[in-house]
Amino acid sequence: MPSNVAFKVTGLCDTKSQAITGDIEAKYSDHKNGLVFTETWTTANVLKSQLELENYLAKGLKLDFATTLAPDTGNKSAVFNAIYKQSGVHTRGAFDMFKLRTTSPMERSPAYAAAIGYNAPEYAVTVRGLNNLNTFAASHYHRVSPDVEAGAKAVYDTKPTYLDSAAFVKAKINNVGVLALGYMQTLCPGVKVSFGLTLDTQRLNEAIPSGPAHKVGASFTFEA
Question: Keyword annotations for this protein (predicted)?
Answer without folding.
Answer: Ion transport, Membrane, Porin, Transmembrane, Transmembrane beta strand, Transport
